């Protein structure tokens, strides 16, 4: 055998996670699962904790998981005498680690893990392993009808692991007494758990954990999405069992216990009976607890429940299995296969378990315990650095799989330049980390909701959104054209009338793009009529320009004087005026009898009303919305300008892009969201434009709070900003062929190959494309940006010939520190295409405007 191969026994959480890790490292694998399907519905749910979420995020899986979970925000712990207390430990954990605590159906979780594998052909179901042989240079596994050969066998097959049994057998055959009977009986059973899923239980609120702690029994209830309720009943057993002498339960055992608990109150107006009567599926299982001291022998290695079951009452089983998979993958990446490597991997995990057992905290009341578990961090340099780094984006540093994901440090800026302050500390209240503000996850949820609306053909949102664009574009061009009577073009079926026109007009590109993007952004955030209010739009545009400009000016003054100078600058006044206007809009909406959800402001107001315990007020909503305006306007406008400059100076792309528009409109309907989404060539052109014209040379900013020296001697003093590289990756031949050449169809071709398809869309993020960030905290508004830029480009290509003013070359970009901006003063010529019957997508491609 020439190619190294890992044989994974078990196609559940541990096995599938390990497969994802191995794909990142380009290591071949085969998964053998004894059941006939990967994700059977057995009534189980799974808890995703921060330590597991961090690794899933690095593997590019957490976004899919987050879309089907309801994060916990509060716990209500109750006792039989009626006493209860509330705990915000879920929010505390999220604040510490950047990831929520949440639950979802185990079947759905496994389906996500499986569906995201690139090599599903390597997953074999209905293959129960009967025996394993260690042949020295390789290992052989035998099922009923097939033999599988590999270099390493990993037992991810749970508590009743066949690989663990074969490991013991081979070890004792090699040397009698290697594994003693008492070591084989490491797992003990003191408790049993009944887990189930109910539907539409009245009184169970989103984001709230309900727990009842009684003598000999504990009940936990968690709300999920789609009206699902996940619940657990943990009972203490009269007899403790060890080893293989574990009890077996059927539905009668579970029903008897649950029936006896129906009157138990889990909340003021909710009994367990309310949950039990709405139960869809349930199962009872023993809760094994314990730790095996040795996890490997020869070419056999076990992970997950096969070798440890610690704190199962906290839902950590799946998360610790995920950690095991990452640790083993790191070991495979760092060392050649051998006893030393396997020993190192198992010792790393054993050390972790010792620390785990020592970090249990007492929480009031003293009988309630939870584990304060720091996320697993395998890369030694980054592990130590994480203790000294503050994440400017509101999340703690991520530790990447060694060799699988880049964790480079670049673009170090010293403390003397930034003077211990975030850039906009005195200009943009709410942006520095000491100020309380509504979590970023709220606007992310709102944008996700709006994205779903845009994709729904029965929802009028996208038609209204595109109509707003047409009206805005027309108004801006007419205003620029002054006395010239211009026209309205029938891009969408719901557009207005047409009047004939000819000739060309010189249009300042950035001012027009800024006003159009401001109109679209405020349409998304605030809806009509506010998005058409000229004064309000001017506030938004001025606000976005004033903050970075005034920040540059303010840095010229001594630090002690900045707090006194800032109030006299334009930016703080702009912030105040904008937030005052938003607060006025909120107040007006509260006075209406009905407030249907039409825009992101409506969604945010509803969220605040549903979470009164957080104490958020209208000013907090206004702050969040103004920050969103600041983040969206100039970045999107600059991308639009770059795209226009590129297409105006690359006439070879006009014909294929216009043909694609015509084809997609014919197949999916004129101007529909479905048609826009199918324009892969246009999507590729936009993404290539972004690659060649990155706004920021770096990404994922971190501020170093304490000095640190890497093992290679690189010293990072306190006060430095460190970043991951952005533009250097875009220029690296390792990731992009001929990176110095603009290739507008580069990413369209990537869609043709399964291995690169997922990274090809404009909105996709990866370790090689971090313009929108990456993973859990990637920009949630990137999908709206995609729609905005495509609307502009489709409209221009469909109805105009255009060129740089005077048929000049592409305007040069302007460098500003580590930022690269388009020429803000450059103009383009626009001339309406001569077309028959409004079918302008078939234009001849002449963009000379001569």
From TrEMBL:
This is Cytochrome P450 monooxygenase. Its cofactor is FAD. The keyword Flavoprotein applies. It comes from Drechmeria coniospora (Nematophagous fungus). Pfam families: FAD_binding_3, p450. GO terms for molecular function: FAD binding; heme binding; iron ion binding; monooxygenase activity; oxidoreductase activity, acting on paired donors, with incorporation or reduction of molecular oxygen. InterPro entries: Cyt_P450, Cyt_P450_CS, Cyt_P450_sf, FAD-bd, FAD/NAD-bd_sf, FAD_mOase_fung. The keyword Cytoplasm does not apply. Residues 4-349 form the FAD-binding domain. Keywords: FAD, Flavoprotein, Iron, Metal-binding, Monooxygenase, Oxidoreductase. Belongs to the paxM FAD-dependent monooxygenase family.
């Amino acid at each position: 055998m020439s190619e190294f191969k890992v044989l994974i026994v078990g196609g559940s959480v541990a096995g599938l996670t390990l497969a994802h890790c191995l794909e990142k490292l380009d290591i071949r694998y085969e998964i053998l699962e004894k059941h006939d399907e990967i994700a059977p519905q057995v009534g189980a749910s799974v808890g995703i904790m921060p330590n597991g979420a961090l690794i899933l995020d690095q593997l590019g899986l957490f976004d899919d998981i987050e879309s089907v979970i309801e994060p916990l925000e509060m716990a209500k712990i109750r006792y039989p005498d009626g006493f209860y207390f509330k705990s915000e430990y879920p929010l505390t954990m999220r604040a510490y680690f950047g990831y929520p605590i949440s639950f979802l159906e185990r079947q759905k979780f496994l389906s996500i893990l499986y569906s995201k594998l690139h090599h599903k052909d390597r997953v074999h179901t209905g293959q129960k392993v009967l025996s394993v042989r260690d042949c020295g240079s390789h290992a052989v596994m035998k099922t009923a009808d097939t033999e599988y050969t590999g270099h390493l066998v990993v037992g991810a097959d749970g508590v009743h692991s066949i690989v663990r049994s074969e490991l013991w057998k081979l070890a004792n055959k090699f040397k009698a007494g290697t594994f003693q009977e008492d070591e084989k009986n490491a797992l003990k059973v003191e408790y049993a758990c009944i887990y189930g899923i109910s539907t539409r239980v009245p009184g169970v609120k989103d984001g709230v954990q309900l727990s009842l702690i009684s003598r000999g029994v504990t009940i936990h209830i968690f709300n999920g999405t789609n009206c699902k309720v996940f619940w657990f009943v943990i009972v203490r057993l009269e007899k403790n069992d060890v080893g293989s002498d574990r009890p077996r339960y059927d539905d009668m055992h579970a029903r008897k216990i649950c029936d006896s608990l129906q009157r138990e109150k889990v909340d003021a107006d909710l009994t367990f009976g309310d949950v039990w009567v709405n139960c869809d599926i349930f199962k009872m299982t023993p809760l094994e607890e314990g730790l095996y001291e040795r996890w490997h022998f020869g070419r056999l290695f076990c992970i997950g429940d096969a070798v440890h079951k610690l704190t199962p009452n906290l839902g950590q089983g799946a998360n610790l299995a995920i950690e095991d998979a990452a640790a083993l993958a790191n070991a495979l990446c760092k060392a050649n296969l051998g006893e030393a490597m396997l020993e190192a991997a198992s010792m790393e995990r054993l050390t972790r378990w010792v620390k785990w057992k020592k970090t249990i905290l007492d929480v009031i009341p003293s009988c309630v315990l939870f584990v304060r578990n720091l996320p697993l961090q395998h890369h030694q340099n980054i592990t130590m650095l994480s203790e000294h780094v503050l994440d400017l984006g509101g999340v703690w540093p991520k530790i990447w799989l060694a060799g699988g994901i880049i964790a480079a440090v670049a673009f170090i800026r010293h403390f003397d330049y930034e003077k211990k302050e975030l850039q906009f500390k005195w200009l943009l209240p709410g942006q520095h980390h000491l100020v309380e503000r509504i979590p970023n996850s709220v606007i992310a949820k709102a944008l996700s909701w709006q994205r779903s609306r845009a994709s729904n053909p029965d929802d009028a949102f996208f038609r209204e959104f595109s109509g707003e664009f047409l009206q805005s574009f027309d108004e801006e061009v007419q205003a620029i054209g002054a006395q010239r009577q211009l026209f309205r073009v029938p891009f969408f079926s719901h557009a207005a009338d047409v009047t004939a026109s000819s000739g060309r007009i010189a249009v300042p590109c950035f001012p027009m793009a800024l006003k159009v993007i401001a109109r679209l952004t405020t349409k998304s955030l605030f809806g009509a009529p506010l998005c058409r209010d000229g004064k309000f739009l001017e506030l938004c545009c001025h606000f976005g320009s004033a903050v970075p400009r005034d920040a540059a000016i303010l840095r010229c003054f001594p630090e002690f004087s900045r707090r006194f100078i800032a109030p006299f600058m334009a930016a703080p006044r702009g912030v105040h005026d904008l937030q005052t206007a938003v607060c006025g809009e909120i107040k007006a909406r509260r006075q209406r009898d009905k407030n249907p959800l039409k825009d992101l402001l409506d969604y945010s107001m509803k969220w605040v009303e549903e979470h009164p315990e957080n104490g958020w007020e209208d000013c907090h909503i206004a702050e969040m919305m103004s920050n969103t305006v600041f983040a969206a306007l100039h970045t999107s406008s600059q991308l639009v300008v770059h795209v226009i400059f590129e297409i105006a100076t690359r006439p070879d792309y006009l014909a294929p892009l216009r043909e694609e528009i015509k084809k997609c409109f014919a197949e999916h309907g004129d101007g529909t969201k479905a048609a826009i989404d199918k324009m892969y060539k246009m999507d590729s052109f936009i993404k290539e434009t972004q690659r060649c014209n990155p706004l920021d040379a770096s990404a994922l900013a971190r501020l170093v709070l304490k000095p640190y020296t890497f093992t290679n001697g690189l010293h990072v003093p306190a006060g430095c900003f460190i970043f991951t590289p952005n533009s250097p990756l875009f220029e690296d031949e390792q990731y992009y062929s001929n990176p110095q050449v603009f290739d507008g169809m580069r990413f369209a071709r990537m869609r043709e190959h399964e291995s690169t398809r997922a990274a090809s869309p404009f909105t996709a993020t990866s370790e090689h494309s971090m313009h929108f960030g990456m993973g859990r905290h990637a920009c949630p508004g990137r999908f709206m940006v995609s729609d905005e830029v495509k609307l502009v480009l489709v409209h221009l290509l469909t109805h105009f010939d255009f060129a740089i003013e005077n048929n000049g070359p592409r305007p040069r970009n302007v460098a500003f520190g580590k930022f690269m901006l388009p020429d803000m003063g450059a103009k383009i010529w626009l001339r309406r295409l001569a077309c028959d019957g409004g079918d302008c997508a078939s234009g001849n491609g002449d963009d000379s405007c001569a």
